[in-house]
Amino acid sequence: MSQRFTERRSFLKTTAAAAAVGAVPYFVTGSNVRADEQKATESNDRPLVGCIGTGSRWNSVGPNAMHLGDVVAVCDVDANHAAAAHKKVTDIQSKKGVERKVDIYEDYQKILERNDIEIVTIVTTDHWHSKIAIEAMKAGKDVYCEKPLTLTIDEGKKICQVAKETGRVFQVGTQQRSEMGLRFLQAVALVRSGRIGDVQNVAVAIGGAPTSGTIPVADIPNGLNWEKWLGQAPMVDYRWRLDGKFAKTRCHYEFRWWYEYSGGKLTDWGAHHVDIAQWAIGQSGEGMGATSIEPIYAKHPVELKDGMPVQDDQYNCATEFHVKATFDNGVVMDIKNSHQQELGFDNGIMFTGTEGRFLVNRGKLVGAPIDALKDNPLPENAIAEIYGGKDPAANNAHMTNFFECVKTRSLPISDVYTHHRALTTCHLSNIAIRLNRSLKWDPKSQQIVGDDQANAMQSREARKGYEVTV
Is 467 part of a structural domain of the chain? Predict the structure, then answer.
């Protein structure tokens, strides 16, 4: 048994104070990863990877994948991103002694057509995820896709359907399930083991979207295929304005704050924290989820009509919000941009039960139930059981879990089915605040009850030529 595993096993067993939890680094790239790479290279069993979408977030996802597989193709509708990714891949793989030709594509279909590519990473804008993921699975590829997985509830239904039909391994990039010092795994284990009694409330703080003011129409940058970037979304003008050191735009990174391409903070951070919360309270399985969604308040930077923005020249996602989701097990989840005023935190999850409460976020795990672990630790295997019996202490844990599941054909820790259920709560919350009314949800039939207009917002009309078919 390696020294590192012994140390981590001891940590999991004793589960001392939050300070000890916080001491574990987010990403560890130590000797174990290099040994795994060397072993895989010697046995010539490293899978070949194609990377679809190579913007800012890919700079983490891509190198993590290269610890375990060899990238042979990169693809992006922005030629500048694709060229930078090509250089990064060749530099990293050359240093490891991997001499492979790396192709550059603008059209992701070129990657899906290649029989040698077994795995694809999808790190595009949110509104492109579902179409690429469905076609990748149907092309026989295993998929690692960044969160949030979908733009609509209907897309999640379709992805789950195709995943079942094809049997492909699919990991969603919700790294909180694997990393962040194992704080979130420990939080789930604490709730599941009854350390706070019966859960009554889960308060989730995820931040609000920024505002932009008016963004003028601008020339499309050289190398960007704007029409393909829009894909399923309506054809609109490219907009860009420099604001200090940062750009306000309809495009790269800032797409998060437009309902046409994303869901604001309710899906950007909700995909992380709501996911952990529903996992902990046992509401992420098939047929489970919130039964009612009540919008307490919401603030948007533009006027909405029938839930749709009436302006197209500035960010339109909610800057402030409070949504109350009630589950059939009696747990109430309060989802807000901030709980600072009443609970004292701007980001994180507060679990409250009949016998105590605690807070978890990416920086800390605190509360009386955490302090009590010094004298009454969790069982030695508690976190491993939460992690599906696999090693939660692995280097590069989330990507390692995915590659292991590709080999074993087992379900990864962040599967599409549980992610879809958590993201459904986020999508329903957005529908509720956009229409400014409460919704009744049937998690078994996955339908909004008695509200045709709200039900219609489960899907979107794709631009001709970009339809999603299953």
Answer: no
Determine phi and psi for 42, rounding to 5 degrees. Answer: -65, -35
Q: Which of 143, 161, 177 is the last residue of a domain?
A: 177
Residue 297 and residue 264 in contact, taking contact as beta carbons nearer than 8 Å: no
Number of domains in the chain: 2
Q: Which residue has the higher pLDDT, 283 or 395?
A: 283
Distance, CA of 127 to CA of 449 (rounded, Å): 26
Q: pLDDT by residue (tens digit) across 149-190?
A: 999 999 999 999 999 999 999 999 999 999 888 999 999 999
Q: Which of 136, 156, 177 is the last residue of a domain?
A: 177
Question: How many CA atoms lie within 13 Å of 97's alpha carbon, on the beta-carbon side?
Answer: 7
Q: What is the extent of the structural domain holding 297?
A: 182-378+416-456
Type of residue numbered 34: R
Measure the CA angle with vertex 316, ends 416 and 322; round to 5°.
70
Q: Rounded mean pLDDT of the chain?
A: 91
The 10s digit of each residue's pLDDT in 431-441 is 999 999 999 99
Report if residue 470 sits inside a domain.
no
